[in-house]
Specification:
With 119 residues, the chain is mostly helical. It is 71% helix and 12% strand. It has a domain of 77 residues: Winged helix-like DNA-binding domain superfamily/Winged helix DNA-binding domain (Arc Repressor Mutant, subunit A), CATH 1.10.10.
């Protein structure tokens, strides 16, 4: 993994570590939204929400644009796919671990049944 990829993952996971930012991303998954709309579910000031948006933007997870006096935010799916792919590498590990456990349990059951037949 390159240094740039490592730095991206650091920023992305830091951004995703906060539940408010995850909720903002979940909302943006349904479509673009303005800052005021994104702030509605939270009991915090617009500047506080704006700070969360800056973290998400710096991580590359969203982009912000202006139309007249309105600021709109958009989810950037490609960086989230990179995060998902990285996590996916570990899901393969767990799947293989479960497969090994399944084989072990089958062998254990077979051995137990054979010992029961001998008695």
């Amino acid at each position: 993994m390159t240094e740039a990829e490592e730095e991206f993952l650091d920023r992305a996971f830091a951004a995703l570590a906060d539940r408010t930012r995850r909720a903002i991303l979940a909302r943006l998954a349904t479509g673009d939204a303005g800052v005021t709309e994104l702030a509605e579910p939270f009991q915090m000031s617009l500047p506080a929400v704006s700070k969360h948006l800056k973290v998400l933007e710096k991580a590359g997870l969203i982009t912000r644009s202006s139309q007249a006096q309105w600021r709109y935010c958009r989810l950037e799916p490609e960086p989230l796919k990179q995060v998902s792919d990285w996590v996916g590498n570990y899901s393969r590990f767990w799947e293989q671990s479960y497969e090994r456990l399944d084989e072990y349990l089958k062998d254990l059951k077979k051995t137990t049944e054979q010992e029961g037949e001998k008695k």
